[in-house]
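Figure caption, in words: inputs first, then the predicted bound structure.
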Amino acid sequence: MVMTRKLKYDDPRLRMGGVDIALSGEIKLLGLIIDQKLTFNAHVASVCKRAVAFYHQLARAAKVSWGLHPEVVRIIYIAVVEPVVLYAASVWAPAVDKIGIRKQLNVVQRGFAQKLCRAYRTVSLNSALLLAGILPLNLRVREAATLYEARKGVPQREIGDREVERMSSAFCSPHPAGHIDLEFKCLMNQEQLVANNDHDFNIYTDGSKIEGKVGAALSIWSGAVETKTLKLALPAYCTVYQAELLAICRAARMAAINLAGSVGIYSDSLSALQTLQNPKALHPLAVEARGFLRDALIQNKRISLFWIKAHAGLEGNERADHLAKEAALKSKRKFDYDGCPVSFVKRSIRKRSLEEWNGRYRAGETAGVTRIFFPDAVVAYRIIGKMDVDRIITQVLTGHGGFSEYLHRFELKESPGCVCDETVDESILHLLIDCPQHSRIREDLLQQIQMELCRGSIPAILGNTKSRQIFLSFCSRVVRIVNERNRAK
Ligand SMILES: [Zn+2]
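Bound structure (zinc ion present):
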């Protein structure tokens, strides 16, 4: 294969052992098809072909009114289809904004999105994506690529100048023969604490996130007296888990270097202790803490680790908890640790994707009916996750269902008119808001939700958890009645 920017060039002639070696237009390397001009069209086409094959298998087993449960389809989509498409996304992500490639991805995704929300096949991509609660594939490709680069330390717009926390290299860990066995005991109450307390020093550690601020603290005791405290500050984007680990790490350092005698280290975070215990966990703070504990062991110091139940009235733990909250709220010191957790990076990337998706959804020519119910895709993304979107609700939210106006549009019914008035189209909005056929159950609805029902008020009704449930069951009833009526004709 020849890769060059030149427009005019001569193909090189290669001979080996008297045999001409032919040039090829593309090569497949580790499952990625690389073409001469780096367009990645061939790769996307092959990936889409595989995804479509999955779709055909699914289509046999997942129909609108019978077959695989949408939740099963969702699992298949998230666990199989997306990873197949996103494979090596960081390589070909720059190609994803080309119209041709976007079209290919859209075709693949539309089918799955329709299956996920059990929509009619005429439903547009924008509607189906919104109701299925999934993001457009091209945005997902970019998300995957951005996350990969952020993890590799390439600066990203989403996270500004923060440095992503990187796991320590396995090469920096000690040889498996040099691993130390770390055990921790679980203490549930004061009696167990007293029974296990035979150390010269006890260090209670805790991390805290309060009002969006993060802090950690150590409280060092000798016998029944607190001899020293240490407050640690972390930036707001850090997690409690990081704060807990940082506190344990500092306690380990203190035990290994500053304190002479046996030390007990107490934490109420099981996950932090488990990370510390597991030699394969490469969190930088855990690796550092293990290093201190190993040093202490070499010096023949006795250091024991304990998990203690939080909020069980244990004095040292309550004190550390109080100090950690103070550290979070009041501390003005320089941050003791500022590794940006991957969860924060993921959230920031998702936020940007949602904004872009929202812009596309709002400006789109399709999904007109869906936009009446959900004018904003970001809000919808949050609400849809809490809703049970079945095929009837999908008919309501898309306007594609057994309504005369829709049936007429696709030449399945002669007249688009409603039974109440032939001159009025039987659309979903007419049925929900105006049609006198359903005035009785509509009265009941209005009684219950105490809100006005008109085109403009629907998003507000859906935004409220209580009125949403009542409104959706009203919609279901209306649609079932109308479906029944239109089927009978
Ligand atoms: Zn009517």
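The pocket of zinc ion is lined by residues 418, 420, 424, 426, 430, 435, 437 (CB under 6 Å).
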